[in-house]
Amino acid sequence: MSGLAPSFRELKDEADIAAALEEGRRLFAGPCDFIFGAQKLGQLPPQTLPEIAFAGRSNVGKSSLVNALTGRKTLARASSEPGRTKQLNFFDLAHRLMLVDMPGYGYARAAKSVKEDWQDMMFDYLRGRPVLRRVVVLCDARIEIKSHDREVMSLLDRAAVSFQVVLTKCDTVKPAQLAAKRAEMEAEIRSHPAALPFLSVTSSQTGEGIEALRAELAEFALPKAE
Q1: Which of 42-46, 54-58, 217-221 is the least confident region?
Q2: In sequence order, which residues have a C-beta less than 8 Å from that of residue 180 and are 6 or more positions away?
Q3: Alpha carbon 197 to chain centroid distance?
Q4: CA 167, CA 209: separation in Å to the nearest integer?
């Protein structure tokens, strides 16, 4: 749309790229506080900030990614028991952006009723949250796309919520395997109308892709108060 500032991925000038990376760094280096955990839709906090939600299978590295983005070690705590988290956790980032840690999906031992409840709650949240700007869908670079990943992407299509796919744990795979994984995921993305046409490759251990992802997500933050 004319008149809109280009997104981070559209930037060509090195100075503009550097400025966007610095804005992302400053935003995510700011205060980030857990404010609420909602287990039911009626418990959701007021819609005061733009929201970015993070979704992924259990053990995909979601908590590690949120911690890497914010430069903290225990902001989002990874459970020792996969599939344990059953609530939406809201984190206020510098009073400019809300980060939403969604419950992990696809845990094999979860009861069918639990899986159905997750899908129902998540769909209601996704389609009924006007401040939700983007969902970041995490997929493990070490394994093939799972049916649960495709189901969640289809759910986002139905809810008409834009989502961005991020590959995690990319430091743990060899270059040829990573290239094949990228090709597989890029083909999957093309089949989903709500998916953004690019793929982020990250590692919470080495920091690969973290700076760029910060810059991309910072675009949704409210302007910094003077």
Answers
A1: 42-46
A2: none
A3: 15
A4: 10
The closest of 89, 63, 94 to 76, measured between CA atoms, is 63
E strand spans, 66-193: 88-93, 97-101, 132-140, 163-168
The one-letter code for the residue type at 220 is: F
Spatial separation of the C-alpha atoms in residues 33 and 202, rounded to whole Å? 24
Which is it for strands 163-168 and 88-93: parallel, antiparallel or unpaired? Answer: unpaired
End-to-end Cα, the chain, rounded Å: 28
CA-based torsion, 204, 207, 211, 216: positive or negative:
negative
Give every CB contact of residue 2 below 8 A, 6+ residues apart in sequence: none
Enumerate the β-bridge partners of residue 135: 53, 163
The segment with the largest mean pLDDT, out of 3-17, 33-47, 114-128, 192-206, is 192-206
Give the integer Cα–Cα distance in Å for 63 and 48. Answer: 24
Q: Which tokens hold the place of 223?
A: 């302007």
3-state secondary structure of 32: strand
Q: Which of 110, 128, 117 is nearest to 87 (CA)?
A: 117
Superfamily of domain 8-218: P-loop containing nucleotide triphosphate hydrolases (3.40.50.300)
